[in-house]
Amino acid sequence: MCKNCNGFTLVEAVFALALLLVITTVLLPLFAQIMMERQNIALKAKAQQILDAALYEENIHKEMTVVDGRTTFVIHSDYEENDMWKVCVRWTDYANRSAERCGYVKR
């Protein structure tokens, strides 16, 4: 055998590829979950924008629907005691979880 060989052996190459495969298999679902949560944060920001717009709109119906891409936002408004107006926005995020944001304004 050659004493000054500087190359990889077949066992070393197979071990390196197996290690790379294990790391990729572990990290790929984690990256997919991170991307889905980033999209859910964007949906939450969009819902807050819709809620802010609905709070300052004078003539809003009791229930409205806003469709933005693949997501449907449902806006509910209701008067409560002391002339407080409650507006809630409901939607289903990309993980199929139901979410809601509410806001109050005095009229």
UniProtKB/TrEMBL annotation:
The chain crosses the membrane at residues 13-36. The keyword Membrane applies. Keywords: Competence, Membrane, Transmembrane, Transmembrane helix. GO terms for biological process: establishment of competence for transformation. InterPro entries: ComGE-like, N_methyl_site. It is found in: Cell surface. This is Type II secretion system protein. The lineage of its organism: Bacteria, Bacillati, Bacillota, Bacilli, Bacillales. One of its GO terms (cellular component) is cell surface. It comes from Geobacillus sp. (strain WCH70). It comes from the Bacteria. It holds the Pfam family N_methyl.
